Amino acid sequence: MMVDTLIAKRHLMANKKQTLVAMLGVTFGIAMFILMISFMIGVNQFMEDTMLSSTPDIHIYNDIKTDYTVSIAGDYFKNKNLLVSVRHPKPKHVNLNLKNANGIINDLRSDPGITQVSPFLSTQVFYNYGPVQINGYINGVNIIDESKIFDLRSKMTEGQPEDLLNTDKGIIMGRGLANKLNLVVGDMVTLTTPAGTSMSFRVVGIFAIGIGTIDDTRSYINLANVQQLMGKDRSYITDINIKLINNKLAPSKAGELYKKYNYKSDDWQTANSSVMASNIVRNVLTYVVSITLLTVAGFGIYNIMNMTIKNKMKDIAILKAQGFSGHDIVRIFLSQSLFIGFFGALMGEVLGFLLAYALSRVPFPHNDFISLKYFPVIFNPAHYLFGLVFGVITPFIAGLMPSIKASRIDPVVILRG
Amino acid sequence: MSIALKVENVNKYFREPEEFHVLTDISFCVNKGEFVPVIGKSGCGKSTLLYLLSTLDTDYQGKIFINDQLLTGESQNNLARFRNENIGFVFQFHFLLPEFTALENVMLPAFKLGKLGREEIEEQAMDKLRELQMDTFANKLSSRLSGGQQQRVAIARALINNPTIIMADEPTGNLDSINTGLVFDIFKELSHQNGITILTVTHDLDFAKSADRVIEMVDGRIKNS
């Protein structure tokens, strides 16, 4: 065994340039893999974080389901033997609230898998400030509960979530919205509902989640104020946000809740399925490109090993004549290939880390819709381990065939010339 | 005198490109310490015979014994170990490993045998090189040596594991007359003083003339033994 390693080492050292070239193939393959996966997973993580800062794990709400197949005419003509068909009916008035909301909330709060429940009432409003009118939404919330689900405290650019409780008719506005209306903390803004009622609120805080569509349209006010604004009673709730202990269980839990309460339950993955889909695409892309690069590196090694073995036919024959077995020959050449793979991969990890680190220091182009300072890059030891394993397996496979071929060389044919 | 090598009714066929009977009913014995050249015209099968005897080629009928041990039908791995321990090889082209020094080339088969530590092996290898007056070149890369020097290193390498038998295929085929004489003297000394059996295929009739016994082959048979 020792002597096999000695010979392998000598072969590698005798042809340093060729060894280095073979190694660089693996090095670049692994480096690109590390760079790509660090960046792609970084992007995925960023997307997921952004998503989770605006989407609850599960969102329960009353989906508008207007049944157009039956008509009041059916009730009227019930006892007559007639076929009733109403062409193009209008939808009838529906209440969007959750019936028995308090019961559902209490039930959810007692669920051990759920850490946080935040009921709210959402409606469309016009924001009026001076002559300016902007269309948006308000969420009537219990700010303490809502704040725990979305970690609002860290997203506040001015004021604190609790300020909402300390002020009569306070409002916490999205930054984009506040900028459009040129509002600052302390200003009064008038909200008008689609039904025509209006009420004034004092700005107590400004938040920025980092997603334009939310920061430009959403505000938070106390649940009771919204109920009052809409002229609804104290139990009028349209939505419930839920935070789970383990958000990976959200899809199955959402299905469970739907069955239990018969209200639409969206888990965060379904609600953001386009983002999730692009995550999958990025993952697949990363692996496809990395595997392609490594396969190319593998073919490089295969070629170099084949050439080496062709050049070493005489040596192989003489080693066999002197009592080296086929296994020894396989070991001699396979260990060269593994050496190339291992050190090539190790170099690739270092290079990949440096590239990924460099990328993580590159400022992200300024953008109003995305709150990113630098390119998102993640450093996960598992990726490096995977790279190393892959960087060794590829040369192993690439070196195996030439090595076995070498071990089958018939020394008699070579020695007789 | 005990028998080093015994061959019983060996027949060998080449199957490619068409079937051809290379060796016919070969039987002979070689005693320990004998120096036996095998001569014959090109294509008479003498090299083929040598490779059968050396256990590198196992495709034959009949039986081959070395040191009273039947080698016919042994596995490749067992034969490799047997060669390592008992047979030394010298070839027309010296086949030293070019990445290694002369000394290392001599040491490699002993490393493979694995019976001794590195220092003892190095000591023995130096002894062998000294016997062949190659000790001054010990640390030179083998590819930097002349043909005659390489052949002497190859002989030292063949001797490193103290084999009972040395097989040589045209060991002087590539050497000038001075080096041929040198190799011849070395072989003679090895067989007569160290008791090593030497079987060598050669074209060189001068080389053959002064040997103990000559095996002459004609058309795949032994002429007079």
Task: Characterize this entry briefly.
Chain A has 417 residues and is α+β, with helices and mostly antiparallel strands. Chain A is 56% helix and 16% strand.
Verbal overview:
Helix content of chain A is 56%, strand content 16%. Chain A has helices at 2-14, 16-54, 72-76, 101-109, 143-150, 152-155, 163-166, 175-181, 212-215, 223-230, 250-261, 268-271, 273-311, 313-321, 326-360, 381-407, 411-416; strands at 58-61, 114-129, 132-141, 156-158, 170-174, 188-192, 198-207, 218-222, 239-244, 264-267. Chain A has a 6-stranded mixed beta barrel with strand order 2-3-8-5-7-6, surrounded by 4 helices. In chain A, helix 1 (2-14) crosses helix 15 (326-360) and helix 15 (326-360) packs antiparallel against helix 16 (381-407). Chain B has a single domain, classed as Rossmann fold, CATH 3.40.50. Helices cover 36% and strands 26% of the residues of chain B. Chain B is built from 7 helices and 10 strands. Chain B is globular, with a radius of gyration of 17 Å. The relative contact order of chain B is 0.20. Chain A binds chain B through residues 2-3, 6-7, 10-11, 13-14, 314-315, 317-328, 411-412, 415-417, and chain B through 47, 51, 54, 56-57, 76-77, 80-85, 89, 91-93, 95, 97-100, 108-109, 111-114, 157, 169.
